[in-house]
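Course assignment 3, question 2. Fill in each field.
Student: A.L.
Task: Predict the tertiary structure for the chain below.
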Amino acid sequence: MKTEINQKTKYESLSKGLGITGLVLGIITLLVSFIPCFGLFAIFFGIIAIMVSLIGLIIALKYNYEKSLIMGALITSLLGCGIAYSQYAAMNAITNEVIKDANKLIEENGGEPKEYKKNDSPKENDIDLTRKKDIALVLEYMKNSKKEVTDENGLISNYEYKIK
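Answer field:
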């Protein structure tokens, strides 16, 4: 009789411990999943929290223990995983659009990157060409217009001056 009571309290404490562990991991998953870009990694915490909560739920169902803490842990874990997955889906869609646009530009240029020179005259409706030409001119000007200043020991200072 005493071993049955010990075993009952053993599984009850195990069920509560797994419920608390799952709830803590579920809350961490939920909080981390709201962080932009880093929230993608919350899915790993969420999977662990779901597994721990499911094990605790199985034990609670088998021995007819209280399930409210474990259900809360399972819900927070699933909610955090859902938010983290939605961030993953959004980042994947954005990446696919960027790759599609880059491939389209490469195909338009005949498979090779096009070099822009100062004497290029863009077509009237070619806004992308004009923008790229302007960026190239600004970068060239910035490269040529700044020099590093050194102090009396020859060390480079953080100040820059423009050459006119």
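Instructor remarks: The longest strand covers residues 156-162. The CA atoms of residues 30 and 116 lie 48 Å apart.
Grade: pending
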